[in-house]
């Protein structure tokens, strides 16, 4: 939405992780580059780094999700992780759209 992005995990990612039990997220104001780890998600069977898709500064953190990380399993797209101010909008051109992502999973 303009220069603001809402970061989530995909339905495929939450399904692969299984029952999510822990979530670590950054603080507002933290800055990250594309590909940097900005947090961790842990399930009963694995832990995974959360990777920043583009350069940006964290403007909001879903604090409620930290207390109820299992919501990522029931509603991954409605359970946003963080919101960022995008530093370099041209990086968006390098991201996959939903169709390309689905094709990659096949």
- Uncertain runs with pLDDT below 50, 5 residues or more? none
Beta-strand residue fraction: 25-35%
Share of residues in helices: 10-25%
Alpha-carbon distance between the termini?
29 Å
For the secondary structure, the number of strands is 7
- The radius of gyration computed from the alpha-carbon positions, rounded to a whole number of angstroms, is 13 Å
Task: State the secondary-structure class.
Answer: alpha+beta
The description of the largest β-sheet is: 4 strands, antiparallel
Mean residue pLDDT: 94
* Physical arrangement of strands within the biggest beta sheet: 1-7-6-3
- What is the succession of H and E elements? EHEEEEEHHEH
* Helical stretch tally: 4
* Global shape: globular
Blueprint (SSEs and pairs):
Blueprint: E1 4-7, H1 11-17, E2 20-24, E3 31-32, E4 37-43, E5 47-51, E6 56-61, H2 63-67, H3 71-74, E7 82-86, H4 98-105
Antiparallel strand pairs: 1-7, 2-4, 3-6, 4-5, 6-7
């Amino acid at each position: 939405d303009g220069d603001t992005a809402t970061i989530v995990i995909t339905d495929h990612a939450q399904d692969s992780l299984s029952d999510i039990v822990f979530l670590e997220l950054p603080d507002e104001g933290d800055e990250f580059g594309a590909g940097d780890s900005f947090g961790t998600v842990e399930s009963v069977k694995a832990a995974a780094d959360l990777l920043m898709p583009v350069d940006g500064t964290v403007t909001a953190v879903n604090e409620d999700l930290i207390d109820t990380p299992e919501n990522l399993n029931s509603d991954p797209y409605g359970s946003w992780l963080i919101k960022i101010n995008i530093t370099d909008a041209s990086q968006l051109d390098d991201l996959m759209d939903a169709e390309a992502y689905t094709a990659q999973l096949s």
